[in-house]
Amino acid sequence: MRRMAHDHGSALSDVEVRVRALETVLTAKGYVEPAALDELVETYETRIGPRNGARVVARAWTDPDFRAWLIEDGSVAVAALGYGGRQGEHLRVVENTQQVHNLVVCTLCSCYPWPVLGLPPVWYKAPPYRARAVADPRGVLRDFGVELPADTEIRVWDSTAELRYLVLPMRPPGTDGMDEDALSQLVTRDAMIGAGLPLAPS
Predict the structure, then answer these.
(1) Of the residues 13, 75, 110, 184, which is catalytic?
(2) 103 — phi, psi (to 5°)?
(3) Please, what is the average pLDDT of the chain?
């Protein structure tokens, strides 16, 4: 089950069934171009949203005062960079260290901080991830290619409609001379969920 194999075999929710039906009708009538729709979803899922979060993380890596503010009051600190709005009103930032690795899940549905991460990935919403992240977080991380030392504590944070989480990953070694823009290119969406790590500098 690599990367959670993304083959969960889970049934679609009622909302997802309605969205698929609407998409099918609009496509059949020629109102929606499937390729354009796929591109739009891809943009919000992997580029626009996660790029916001990456800039937040890079700022925290380079500005100790901002990092402290981010951990103390994530919603306000993120909004100060212009990334606020619906689904981001109640944001808590949890920091990875050598001793602790954080992993975010939403066991009840798929609550997710859209302003900083965009649309949630399919695997985040899938029942197998939601169940295993709590029962076997180390195994889930291994499926994502993240092998942590045996003595690293893994903390699992369960998002709700009232509180969402963003992981502040550790800054990769070998990045001392990099500026904020360059650092932001190393920050992945999965690292900000805790299911991955930042990229190593090339």
Answers:
(1) 110
(2) -135, 130
(3) 86
Q: Which amino acid is at 166?
A: L
Alpha-carbon distance of 167 to 137, in angstroms, equals: 15
Provide the pLDDT for residue 6. Answer: 38
**12-193 CATH fold:** Nitrile Hydratase; Chain A (3.90.330)
Give the per-residue pLDDT at 4: 41
The predicted structure's pLDDT at residue 99: 98
Q: Which of 10, 75, 111, 159 is catalytic?
A: 111
Q: How confident is the model at residue 101 (pLDDT cuts 50, 70, 90)?
A: very high
Q: From residue 76, how far is each of 38, 56, 66, 194 by CA, in Å?
A: 33, 12, 11, 22
111 in catalytic set: yes
Residues 6+ apart with CB under 8 A from 101: 141, 146, 148, 152, 153, 154, 155, 194
Catalytic one among 10, 13, 75, 106?
106
Predicted confidence band at 74 (pLDDT cuts at 50, 70, 90)? very high
- Please give the structure tokens belonging to residue 122: 């399919």
Cross-strand partners of 157: 104
Catalytic residue among 109, 159, 184, 202: 109
On the question of pLDDT at 112 being above 80, the answer is: yes
106 part of the active site: yes
Alpha-carbon span 173 to 171, nearest angstrom: 7
Active site residue 159: no
Say if residue 19's pLDDT is above 50: yes
